[in-house]
Amino acid sequence: SAVISQKPSRDICQRGTSLTIQCQVDSQVTMMFWYRQQPGQSLTLIATANQGSEATYESGFVIDKFPISRPNLTFSTLTVSNMSPEDSSIYLCSVEGQANTDTQYFGPGTRLTVL
Amino acid sequence: AQSVTQLGSHVSVSEGALVLLRCNYSSSVPPYLFWYVQYPNQGLQLLLKYTSAATLVKGINGFEAEFKKSETSFHLTKPSAHMSDAAEYFCAATELTADKLIFGTGTRLQVFP
Prior knowledge:
The structure holds two protein chains of two kinds. Chain A is mostly beta strands. Chain A has strands at residues 4-7, 10-13, 19-25, 31-37, 43-50, 56-57, 68-72, 75-80, 89-96, 104-106, 110-114. Classes of the chains: A mainly beta, B mainly beta.
């Protein structure tokens, strides 16, 4: 499976600011995904990011709030814009496996706290 | 639309006891099914997956799960719990025509000595 890293691993931010989270994969992948895990809850898909095209957002998530970049096949960023305390969550990226495209592999997550 | 239900948000077992974590899915089309484990302050690790091959799937760390179409279930079991199994376990499903994963609400497993 791919090795996935995320930066930062955690951050504490002030209300109204923005944070960009990076996701790096050690191999080229077609599809990357961004999930949110709110405190004590399950994972919810924010968007799917394919290289060379606009990200596809799930219901309840908009590009202005969560802009995503996918400049190449090994890297993606998610920005959480104009943050409020309700954005405090763990944000995880995942990738589709190369040999097993039916399986997603997850990064370690970014723990965000908004004050 | 697909949905995944995990019965029991918390399960407690003694070390050495059987672990049974329940998962049911809603789709009329058998999906691909997955179990992931999340240890404290870590990301998700794939335990095992079902993709329409054998109905009994063996995973890492001694876990296995059985796909039962008639019951729309994919319960996770381990014969003998170990203290290191204490974690959050998520069942997830994806439909054959979609890439997105739908997660259950998770089950926190506690293992007592």
